[in-house]
Amino acid sequence: MTPEKFLDLLDSEQQEAVINSTGKVLVIAGPGSGKTRVITYKIAYLIRSGIKPHEIMLVTFTKAAAREMIQRAKNVSHSTLDGITAGTFHHICNIFLRKYGKTININPNFTILDSEDAKDIMESARSEIVPKSERKHIPSAKQLLTINSYMNNTLCSLRESIAKLNPKFLEAEHIIEQILIKYSAEKNEQNALDYDDLLINTLHILSTDSYIRKRESTKLKWILVDEFQDTNIVQYKIAELLSETHGNLMVVGDDAQSIYSFRGARFENVVEFQKNARIFKIQTNYRSSQELVNFINEMLPAKSVPKKLKAIRKTGIKPFLVEVFDHYDEADFVANEILNFHTEGINLNEIAVLYRAHSHSLELQLALSKLGIPFRIFSGLRFTETAHVKDVLAFLKTTVNPKEKVSWLRVLKLLNGIGKIKANRISNKIIGSETPYQTLTQIKEKSDDFSKLKKIYQDSLKLENPGDRIKKFYEIFYNEHLEYTYDNYRERKEDLERLIEMASFYRSTEEFLTDVLVSESFEITNSNLEQLEYDEKVTLTTVHQAKGLEWKVVFIISVNPGDFPHIMSLRDGNIDEEERLFYVAITRAKDYLYIIYSAGGSSRILYGNDYILRCGKSFIDKIPFHLVEHIEYKVRR
Ligand code: ATP
Ligand code: MG
UvrD-like helicase ATP-binding domain: which residues (predicted)? Predict the structure, then answer.
C-alpha cells in the first residue's frame, strides 16, 4: 500500500474528518462508527503532511489504547512516530511536571502515590487532627479521599463537594478542611503527589505561567483527544491551554456513552466545546451486525443527542435475551455457551463477559474454572485473591487440615492483640500437637478475639457443611472484623454472603475447597480445552473498563434491577448514567450479544431493600421484544 492509500480505508465522512479538519474540531458519533479510527488515521495523515511526531499529542482513556493506536498509526504512515506524546491525561501531566514542576516547588523526583498509599496518609492525617472519641462524626479516610478528589476534578468548593457526596458531614466542614491541609502537607513532606495532584498542578502551571504555556503550546501543533465525553473540567482546560498557540484541538466522543460522572467527568464539556468548533458527524456503524444495530438504535439512552446508526454489515443474528432461573443457572449457561463457541473454533480472546460490579462474576468464575476455561479479569482480582475471601478460605483450610501453618498464621493475625510473633508461637503449638484443636482450646490468651476463635472451632467442627462452617466464623468474629477494618465492608460482606451460599451447596468442606482452589491455581494447571493458543482467555470485565473495546461475542450478565442498574443508582435516582452504561455494554458486540437476567430478579440484594427491588426499573422492560430472540434456561427450578 502506498502511504496515501491508507485514506481509502476510511469512508467519505471519516475522510472529511481526517483531511478537512483544522482548528477546533469535534467528531461526535455513535458507538462503533470509527471515532477512534479517525483519530488514529489523523495522526498518520498529519505525519504524511509533514508534521513531526513531537508536535502531536494523543490523549486516550487507557495506556493500552494509546499503545494500540500508535502501533496502527505507525503501520499506516510508515513512520516510527518517535517523539510523539501519547497516553492518558495523568501520564501526560506526569511528564509535564517532571519538566516544569520545579517552577512551583515540586521536586522533579516526586513519587506518585497509588490509592493505598494515599489512604494511609489520609488516615494518619485524620487521626492526628481528630481525637479518637470524635472520629465517628468525621468521614472515613476513603470518604475524605473521595471528597478531595471530587473537589479537585470538578473545581467545586469543599462545601459544594461535601454537600454533593456526603451532606451529613457538612457540619464538619471546618475539621475536614484541616485534615485535607494536613494531608497536603504530609504529601509535600514526602515529596509525593497523588493522581489528582498531577492534573491540578499541571493546570496551575499552564494557567499562571504564560512563558511555559507559550513554549509548550507552540511546540504542540496538534492535540487529539479520544473519549472526550468522559473528560473532566480540569482535563478539558489543560487540553485547551496546550492548544493555545495553534488552536488545533480535535476531540472525538459520544455523549450517549458518558459514564464517569462519579469521577467528575462532565459531558457538558461536549456541549461547551460545540459552540465554537467545527462539527463532524459519522453515521455508519462498522462494528456490529445489522440486527445488533437495529437493537442499539432502539436503546439510545434518554437525554442523548438523537442519532440513528446505519449498519454496514448486512447479515447477522438478533441479540439473545436470556431468562435464567438464578445466577447459578446464569453462570452455567454462560460457561457452557463459551465452551460451545470454543468448540466451533472461536478464539476465547474474542469473547467477553460484562457486568456492573466484579462481585457479580463470582459464580461465573467458579463455573469457568470447573470447565477448565481460562479467563482474565480486567483491573480486578479473582475473588479468591481478595483479602477477605482469602481470610475465610484460610479458616476453612484449618478446619480440614490443622497442620497447615500458613493458614493458621493468616487466621491468628486477624485477631486483635495477636501480632506476628504471638501468631507464630501459637501456630507452632497447634501444629506440633497430636490433638491440635484441643490444644487450641487450652492456650491461654487475654485477647477477646482469641476466645471467640476457640468458640468458632468448637462450634464449627461439628458441622459438615462448608457453608455452615464459614457462617460460624463470619457471625462470631469476621463480620465485625470487616466493619472495623474496611471502608468498603458492605461490598465485602456481600461477597462473603455469596461465598456462604455457594459453599452450602457442597456436602463436604474438602470438596468445596478443591473446587475453589482449582480456580485459584488455574494459571499453573493446564486447561483441559483443546488447542488453546498461547494466552487465549475469555475476558471478564466491568462495563466501565470495557469502554472503547469490541469482541465478537459479548455476554452481559445479571441485568436485574439492583445489580444492573446498580442499587446505589436506583437509590440516588441516578438512572440516566446507568442507561448510558447499559448502552456502552450492548454496543461492544460485533456478532453475538447475550443479555441475561434472572426470572425472580436479583437474589443478591441484601435484606431491607425489597422496596427498591419491587420498584426498581429494569432494563428488560425497555427492550423491544421483536428485535431480540427470547430464550429460557432454567435448569435449577
Ligand atoms: P466506540 O464509541 O465504541 O469507541 P468508535 O467510534 O471509536 O467506537 P472504532 O473503534 O474506531 O469506533 O471502530 C469500530 C470498528 O469498526 C473497528 O473494528 C474499526 O476498525 C472498524 N471500522 C471503522 N471504520 C471503518 C472503515 N471505514 N472500514 C472498515 N472498518 C472500519
Ligand atoms: Mg472509540
Answer: 8-289
DSSP state of 227: S
Task: Give the percent of the chain with pLDDT over 90.
Answer: 63
Among protein residues, the one with the nearest Cα to ligand 1's atom 30 is: 286
The 3-state secondary structure of 45-105, one letter per residue? HHHHCCCCHHHEEEECCCHHHHHHHHHHHHHHHCCCCCCCEEECHHHHHHHHHHHHHHHHC
Say which DSSP state 507 is in: S
Judged against a pLDDT cut of 70, whether residue 366 lies above it is answered with yes
Which residues 6+ apart lie within 8 Å of 249 measured at CB?
A: 23, 24, 25, 223, 225, 239, 240, 243
- 36 is annotated as contributing to ligand binding: yes
When mean pLDDT is compared over 211-215, 429-433, 485-489, 563-567, the highest value belongs to 211-215
| ipTM, 2 dp | 0.99
Mean pLDDT of all residues in 571-596: 93
What is residue 23's DSSP assignment? S
377-388 pLDDT, tens digit each: 887 777 777 889
Question: Ligand 1: distance of its center to the CA of 546 in Å?
Answer: 15
Model confidence band, residue 170 (pLDDT cutoffs 50, 70, 90)? very high
> 284 C-alpha to center of ligand 1: Å?
9
CA-based nearest residue to 90, from 60, 53, 55, 67? 60
Distance of CA 287 from the midpoint of ligand 1 (Å): 6
Q: How far is CA 567 from CA 142, 267, 395, 582, 621, in A?
A: 20, 23, 31, 14, 17
Cis peptide preceding 565, ω within 30 of 0: yes
Alpha-carbon distance of 557 to 333, in angstroms, equals: 10
- For range 45-55, the mean pLDDT: 95
Q: How far apart are CA 250 and CA 51, in angstroms?
A: 15
Q: Which of 26, 286, 304 to mutate to test the pocket of ligand 1 (most atoms within 8 A of CB)?
A: 286
Determine how many CB atoms are found less than 10 A away from the CB of residue 336: 14
Measured distance CA(400)–CA(384) in Å, rounded:
18
Question: Is the pLDDT higher at 354 or at 140?
Answer: 354
